[in-house]
Structures are given as structure tokens and as C-alpha cells.
Amino acid sequence: MSEENKPCRVSVLYTTHRPETVDVLFEEMSRHEAVFLEEPPAADFVDMLEGRVPIDDYLMNRDDEYPEFARRSCRTFQALHRNGILLFQVEPYMEELIGIHEFFAEGAGPSDLTPATARHRVYMAEHLATRALLDFYRVSLAGTFVETVAAVRAFARADADRFRLRDEMRADALAEVVGDYGSPAVEAGYMHALLWRLLKRRAAADARVRPVYLMREQMAEAGARRRNLGPGDVLTLHYLFHPAKDGSVLDLLAARSLMYAKLLEKEEMIGRAGQFPHLKNEMETNRITDVLSYEDCRRLYPLIRRSSTAKARRIVLGYMGRQGKRS
After folding, report:
1. HEC sequence for 135-146
2. 13 pairs with which residues across the strands?
């Protein structure tokens, strides 16, 4: 087969936005001639890649949840660029969201958005998800446990709708460009589970699209399961693939997600090379929540609702010891 007729082999690289994943990400991206990053285009991106704009200056106007991951990623992108690998920022949903914020900052409002456009669809997805999240915050402070679980499920469903639209928009955009390269890679977070499937359907007929779970080896060595997703993420994925799904299993996942959120370390953790503190913390937290019943969660949630992570963990582990439950 000639070079011109070789099929396009697209690898969708699933990862988490944690400092500990950057070395693994660099190793895999280095195997590809082009990389499509999960971020909206930035005017100074090329200047950052070439060192004309310092990384800290480049990141100054971004609101990164994990700043150390962002800094390490930029250093990785600079190294890839020096090695001749092409990097592109493709994330149309977030690009539209930024446009909405700028549009509103100029004095426009939701009624000024044109219905049925991509921008209007993004606005509605964000509006509904934000409203569901605010409802959850309100109910979680004063509502009953049953009401709180229902609010978790409502947010997960709205969040899944948002992920679905985001993946659809990104798959459409990527399908137009990945075929220009023989071995492109696409960066994606684990929650974008639909992306590789959608891209497989929408890319050229000769394109071969496959998911690559970057931390699979490290997770297997640590004994982690289901790509180490917490119960809230699993709940959202249920709705992502089955929007109308219902049942007690979803109530249990929602109840466990309340516990998981209180027990998981929130701050960005930095480990030495080869260490994976976030992975281990997520795995340990999953082992605890996986053995909690709905009734366990109902009893425990009022006790840890306003507790620190450390105190919540002590309370839950003490309860499990008294109940004879083993994580």
C-alpha cells in the first residue's frame, strides 16, 4: 500500500488532568505526527510553544482547575513541538462558551442568541446543567437525603446532556481534519466516552479510530477497576448512554457519590516520578464507597455533610468498622 493510500489511524487518548499523567501523555503523544488537544484555540498558543511567551503568562488568563497539570502540559507541548509534532487546539464547545461570555460581557443577553445555532445549544446545555447544580447545592444544605439523591441524579442527567453535545461538536470538527494525517492523536478526558465512537462514525471511511486508556497499566498495577471512575462519574456515564434510564442502581450510585465527594482529596497532589497519588487516593476512596449500601449512605451523610475530608474519612471508616464492612 502506498503512503498516499495508507488509512488514517486515529488514537483517542483518554486521560485525567492530573500532574502524574503528564509523562505518560508525553510518551504516547510522541508516537503520533499530529495531536489535537482538548482545549479551545488560544491566540498566543504558537508563541507559547516556541517560547516567545512564557508559560506562566500564557496560563494567566485561563481558569485551570489543576494549575500544576497545566504548567507541566505546556512544557510537554513545547517538547513535542521541538520534536516536530504538530499540535492543534480543537474544542468547539468550549470555544462557543467563551464566545457566549464575551457576547454577554458586551451587554447582550440570552434572548439575543439565535435559536438552533451551535452557540444557542451550548448556552442551553450550560444553563440547564448550572441550574441543576445550583439546585443540588441548595437541597444538599437543607433537604432530606432522598431529595439530595434526586438532585444528584438530576444534575448527572443534565451533565450527561452537556457531555453528549460537547462530544458531538468535537467529533464533527475532528472528522474534518484528522484525515489529513496518517497517525493523529486526540486528547480526551475519561468522561468523553462517546467521542471515539462518534468520531469513528463521522471520520472518513478508511479512518481507523481506537480508544487508548493511558493509565491502564498503572491502574492495573494498583488494582484499580473501571478506569478508577467514582460513582458520580459512573452515574453520569449511565445517563450519557441511556438518557431515560431509571432504577435503584442509579439511586445507589448517587448516594455513594455524596460520600465519595466528601472522602476524596480535593487539592492537586504532586508525587515524585513514578508515583501516582491521585490514582491511589481515587482507588482507596472507591474501595470505601463500593461497599456502602444506600442505607449506609443515608445514615452517614448527615454526619459528614459539613465535615472536612479528613474528619469525614474517620467517621466513615469508624462506621464501617462497627458494621464489619471491609473496603
Report:
1. HHHHHHHHCCHH
2. 187, 212
The three cell numbers of residue 98 are 467563551
The domain locations on the chain are 8-90+177-214, 93-166, 245-327
Per-residue pLDDT of the chain (327 residues; tens, 9 = 90+): 334 556 789 999 999 889 989 999 999 999 999 999 999 999 999 999 999 999 999 999 887 888 999 999 999 999 999 999 999 999 999 999 999 999 999 999 999 999 999 999 999 999 999 999 999 999 998 899 999 999 999 999 999 999 999 999 999 999 999 999 999 999 999 999 999 999 999 998 888 999 999 888 877 777 766 567 899 999 999 999 999 999 999 999 999 999 999 999 988 888 766 678 888 899 999 999 999 999 999 999 999 998 999 999 999 999 988 887 777
pTM, entire model: 0.92
- Nine-digit cell string for 228: 478508577
| Distance (Å) of CA 152 to CA 89, 134, 178, 261, 298 | 32, 11, 37, 12, 14
The partner residues of 185 in beta bridges, in order of sequence, read: 11, 35
Alpha carbon separation from 251 to 140, 144, 190 (Å, rounded): 15, 14, 22
Distance (Å, whole) CA 237 – CA 163 = 9
For helices 145-175 and 294-304, the axis angle rounded to 10 degrees is 100
User: Which grid coordinates are listed for 313?
Assistant: 474519612
Between CA 55 and CA 38 the distance in angstroms is 18
User: Phi, psi at residue 98, to the nearest 5°?
Assistant: -60, -40
User: Could you say which architecture CATH assigns to the domain 8-90+177-214?
Assistant: 3-Layer(aba) Sandwich (3.40)
Give the whole-angstrom CA distance, residue 166 versus residue 94.
Answer: 8
Look up cell 473496603; give the residue: 327
> Helices H, strands E: what count in the chain?
14, 5
- Cell 500500500 -> residue: 1
CA distance 309 to 51: 40
